[in-house]
Amino acid sequence: MVEIKNVVIVGASGSLGEPITKALIDSGKFNVTVIKRPSSKASFPASVKVVPADTTSVESVTAAFQGQDAVVSAVGTEGLQGQNVLIDAAIAAGVKRFLPSEFGSDLANPKVAAFPIFGYKIATQKYLQEAIAAKPGLTYTYVVNGPFLDWGLHRGFLLDTKEGKPKIYDDGKTVFSATTLASVGQAVIGALSHYEETKNRFVYVRDIDISQKRLLEIAQKVAPEKKWEPVSVNTADIEKSSNEAVARGEFTAPVLVGYLFRGIFGEGYGNKWEKDDNALLGITGKTEADVEAILKDVLAGGK
Ligand SMILES: NC(=O)c1ccc[n+]([C@@H]2O[C@H](COP(=O)([O-])OP(=O)(O)OC[C@H]3O[C@@H](n4cnc5c(N)ncnc54)[C@H](OP(=O)(O)O)[C@@H]3O)[C@@H](O)[C@H]2O)c1
């Protein structure tokens, strides 16, 4: 039986990398190391081992990955393209499990995978699978968690509560699966603790299935004194406009994010998981009362 004990995280200072690192440390199950790029200004908890490495160099990263059982990549948009270096280094260092920076939409769904925003993630999956086929030893897990529930509410991505004029996509009726950052951290622990069951596959987690309509109702309950003037937006129109921009060669953040809105709030993109791995990975889920608590914090100005 393969046991994952030594875990290294790349992108540990990011919005997701931080809670994943915290969850791994708090579990007490792993020896946790983080990679720090020469350019990084990040600081890390004292309980974590920090190893410097140039993430553009296979040699440098291979040296940093020595003795590691698993690599968790939580690199942000900027780092997605460079994950092949991490894969080559993981193979060279004899790492057993690689979790690429997925942590969102279900890229097993061909309609979602075709969105240009996921180009680098799909290319990474392909590279990883081909590398493993050529030289078995490393394995992978793709964590699919849908939009981050707490992060998405705090950032106004799932429901913009700031001005009281949230954009409601396609009447807000689409139910989608969403997961808090802490539960994504738990999913990583679960995947690393169940080597065989999570080997070379997508794992699906969620805290709750909810719609924008319901999120708005809960927000209105939390802040009834606020003037709520939702604005209707059509995700087919957004996709059309993003497609036109991409055809003109415009790969800007707003253009690409348009595909996320289509994939999360548009009907027919497998937005709500048919089944999940919550029980296997130790995710207990959240209730609408938990969502209400998050929205209370958001509306009170919490970060
Ligand atoms: N499901 C959702 O709702 C959702 C929302 C947001 C993100 N995500 C996904 O979560 C993952 C992480 O995103 P994030 O928003 O947490 O990222 P982020 O906050 O932008 O964090 C970026 C992290 O990546 C590191 N990094 C940046 N460029 C790098 C490079 N070239 N090589 C190596 N490391 C690099 C940074 O380290 P330094 O300290 O060295 O700069 C930092 O730790 C991504 O896959 C993203 O698509 C999902």
TrEMBL record:
Keywords: NADP, Oxidoreductase. This is Pinoresinol reductase 2. The keyword Transcription does not apply. It holds the Pfam family NAD_binding_10. GO terms for molecular function: oxidoreductase activity. Belongs to the NmrA-type oxidoreductase family. Isoflavone reductase subfamily. Residues 11-193 form the NAD(P)-binding domain. InterPro entries: NAD(P)-bd_dom (IPR016040), NAD(P)-bd_dom_sf (IPR036291), NmrA/Isoflavone_reductase-like (IPR051609), PCBER-like (IPR045312). Gene3D superfamilies: NAD(P)-binding Rossmann-like Domain, UDP-galactose 4-epimerase, domain 1.
